[in-house]
Amino acid sequence: MTRTSSVDVLRGFALLGIGIVNLPHLALPMAAALASPEGTLDLIAKGIVGLLFEGKFFVLFSFLFGWGFGVQLASAERSGVPAAAQYRARLIALALFGVAHALLIFHGDILLAYAVLGAGLWGLRDATPRRLVRIAAAMVPLAALAFTALAVLDASAEDMAQGTMDLSGLGYQGSFLDAVMQRLADWPIALVVVVLFNGPLAFGAFCLGLAAQKAGFFDPASPVQGALAARVPVLLAVALPANALYAAATLGLLPAGWPTTLGYAALALGAPTLAAVYVVAVLRLTPRLGLLAPAGSMPLTGYVAQGLLAGALFHGWGLGLFGTLGNAALLGMAFLIWGAVTIAAILWRQQWERGPLDAALRAVVRRLGRSGSRP
């Protein structure tokens, strides 16, 4: 398959992980989503998500964002078109879409964070791959500190629920307007979580993605890709125990205090190393995973559609299943939602080149780009 097809397959695969991680936060009260479940099956399901999914898939998307930025720069250079106005327009459009997504569909939106972090990536557009890799590595200890802060926040979730902060999510059981108001109320704490959980590693992955584009990572027979594949045993030796430690911490299986804090901090190593293993595995299997490419070619539409379907199932304006399913059932539901979005994307691509929201984003970027280029 072509380079673009392999990237689209990787995005289509990443949509699955994003949906699995996000669904509990769409289907459960915030307090329940953060708490350790009581049932054995739910406990196992939450452990699987912590071990294999949490933190890994936004890293994949962020890596591909950085790669796409590099592709845009290279394209602008070949055509002799200044890239600054278009890139600025893209970040503004992402921010606008992110705010809308956070208020209308999912308070844990990451698009706004991408817009802010993307501004920092512009300053590194001329950096060498080696420098970009070093900056990415520097994000790991910063992420460890951020995850440590999250451990403190998670430990205080029960106290917050018993105090003045409402974590019941009652608005999600009402009308669509009630859900919007609930998301608005939840957004401040959600923003804090996104900044801590996603910020450092996302920016590091941006840098790695840009370095990958400069080094021709997705080119056929890329030596960089081969070098990464050769390191899979080492990556797994780091990723599996680190992610197991993190999963144990989120389940409350570690003693309170520094052991739990260390468990959260371990994700700073576990997430990017396991994400790298996923990249190698998916690229090796790309010829067999072509059905994922249509969804991956419209990532914004797929990302938003998963949240919209979840809202239709769980919120009061839909089927009203909010708070009724445990982690095990939600894990299965996430696969079903992802499957529905994947099939819909396959059908959509038979008629149209771009997903509806991806086309809308492109149109907004063009409009803002023209406005920004005027004297």
In short:
The radius of gyration is 20 Å and the shape is globular. Helix content is 76%, strand content 0%.
Total domains: 1
- Helix fraction? over 70%
* Assembly annotation: single chain
Total count of helical runs of at least 4 residues: 17
Shape: globular
The topology string of helices and strands comes to: HHHHHHHHHHHHHHHHH
Hey, roughly how much beta strand do the residues contain? under 5%
C-alpha Rg (nearest Å)? 20 Å
SSE order and pairing:
Elements: H1 3-27, H2 30-34, H3 40-52, H4 57-79, H5 84-104, H6 111-122, H7 129-155, H8 157-162, H9 176-214, H10 223-230, H11 232-250, H12 258-265, H13 267-285, H14 293-296, H15 299-314, H16 327-349, H17 356-373
Helix pairs in contact: 1-4, 1-15, 1-16, 3-11, 3-16, 4-9, 5-6, 5-17, 6-9, 7-9, 7-12, 11-12, 11-13, 15-16
Core attributes:
17 helices; globular; mainly alpha
How is this structure best described in words?
It is a single chain. The protein is mainly α and 375 residues long. It has helices at 3-27, 30-34, 40-52, 57-79, 84-104, 111-122, 129-155, 157-162, 176-214, 223-230, 232-250, 258-265, 267-285, 293-296, 299-314, 327-349, 356-373. It has one domain. The chain contains 17 helices and no strands. Helix 5 (84-104) runs antiparallel to helix 6 (111-122) and helix 5 (84-104) packs across helix 17. The longest helix has 39 residues, at 176-214. It starts with a helix and ends with a helix. 46% of the residues are buried. It comes from Roseibaca calidilacus. This is DUF418 domain-containing protein. The chain crosses the membrane at residues 12-35, 47-71, 91-120, 132-153, 187-211, 232-256, 262-283, 303-322, 328-348. InterPro entries: Bact_Transport_Assoc, DUF418.
